[in-house]
Write a structure and sequence with these properties.
The structure is a homodimer of 238-residue chains. Chain A has five helices and nine strands. Chain A is α+β, with helices and mostly antiparallel strands and 238 residues long. In chain A, strands 1, 2, 3, 4, 5, 6 and 7 form a seven-stranded mixed β-sheet that branches. Chain A has a two-stranded antiparallel ribbon with strand order 8-9. Strand 1 of chain A pairs antiparallel with strand 1 of chain B, so a sheet runs across the interface. Chain B binds a DNA duplex (27 and 27 nucleotides) through helix 4.
Chain lengths: 238, 238
DNA sequence: GCAAAAGTGTTCACCGTACACCCATGG
DNA sequence: CCATGGGTGTACGGTGAACACTTTTGC
């Protein structure tokens, strides 16, 4: 067991973007320009250079494909099945990242390849390699984690309305939430800062704008309170 | 970004064992017989052979070091920092596994190396590589997961008493639980099968023995009920 | 004035919490 | 008979669930 043997090692980054205009969760995919799976859509990825941290590789893959830095990025799972792609056995460490589409303009180098946001409800039938599995796992993780960690705010603009926040939860959890209960819950946590501003250019009553107060969140954590959006997770929801 | 480069890839398996006699959670470690970290204790591991699934490598590492097969095994995290060990950059995919010490006799090949169970409260000060971090992450995962998935039974003999089950939760979660509430909760879930047997050779009233009813658990899941041991996780536990 | 979304409280049921005594067995 | 752990029920409070109307704004 004490011998080494060499291996190509890849990284893939599932980039989730949320569009507050149409309340839609999207995934950023690129079109492959070389075999295998030439012409198929794929999750952005790259190879780990020995001596470089795998986390850093993920950051650079994202930056290279999208021009974006400083975003929520977390390791997801490592896919190590030798038959996940044709040819050589490539193990891939998958990550997922979150970004607000409204506040970030991506600059993929579309001169060499196509790149686009796909609505989560309208993903191409075939993805390269086992990328459908990676995507499924990333979605599962996002759905689980959003209930008990304040990662929703990574997908929103810094200023947002309560309805926008609720729509985000509804989109990701794929269930309707009760407006009054949702607001009661959020306001009781005290992690939202009322900015004293309101929306503009809407053809109805303008909503108040809030921002996520990270300091208040950490204080809440220290005091042993839990961040939880549990609505609809109880068994007696008929 | 479209070039490959070779890499040694390792697997490490944190094997947790539980001893029902002294209500103690333990970790299985081996003593390294070769540099680096010769003479230091380490989490069992091995290298991935190209073409072999990473999951399979983990299974084989466990079997090779302990002689045990067919146990709960789940991927934990991939450690990819180039400075996690001296010398070449070795990325390691970490797993964790659960076993009942009472029902499994391990057969490590102690002729070539030392191997032993260490109480989780008495781990050697120095572990090889970044194995202290791997262990910490594994414990964290175990503590989180045991609350909402029935993995506790992987650590117990097939027949166990309610007190033994409660002690296991108390040991892992590092908090006291209320006997009556714990029993009420478990019996309301209906996933324990009363075997109609009792303990033997105890110098006090003998406890009833139960086993985990996986069929009932799956039925419960299908009906949308949640497995949850939340005691002590509420903010108003004063 | 009407369409469209913002904003706001109360009641009920369930479950997590706290808590104390009798029972069975071996020595 | 006593020491040791096994086994049981109830009252309270917090929170998730269900539910409808008024307000504000642009057109």
């Amino acid at each position: 067991m004490e011998y080494t043997s060499e291996h190509p090692l890849a990284v893939n980054c599932v980039l989730f973007g949320y569009d507050v205009q149409d309340s839609d969760l999207k995934v950023f995919l690129i079109e492959r320009v070389a075999p295998p799976f030439e012409g198929k859509w794929a999750i952005p990825g790259g190879f780990v250079i020995p001596g470089e941290s795998v986390d850093d590789t993920a950051i650079q893959v994202l930056f290279g494909e999208t021009g974006v830095k400083d975003l929520f990025l977390e390791q997801l799972y490592t896919f190590g099945n030798p038959r996940r792609g044709p040819g050589e056995h490539v193990v891939s460490v998958a990550y997922y990242a979150l970004i607000s589409i409204n506040e970030n303009t991506l600059t993929p180098d579309t001169e060499v390849r196509n790149a686009a946001w796909f609505s989560i409800s309208d993903i191409p039938d075939f993805l390269a390699f086992d990328h459908d599995q990676i995507l499924a796992k990333a979605l599962e993780r996002l759905q689980g984690k959003i209930r008990y960690q304040p990662i929703a705010f990574e997908l929103l603009p810094t200023k947002f309305s309560l309805t926008q926040l609720q729509r985000l939860y509804e989109t990701i959890l794929e269930q309707k939430l009760d407006k009054r209960n949702f607001r009661k819950k959020l306001s009781s946590m005290g992690i939202l800062q009322d900015l004293g501003e309101i929306e503009h250019d809407v053809s109805h009553r303008a909503a108040r704008l809030y921002s996520f107060n990270e300091r208040a969140y950490r204080r809440m954590q220290r005091e042993g309170f839990l961040f939880e959006i549990r609505e609809g997770s109880r068994k007696n929801s008929r």
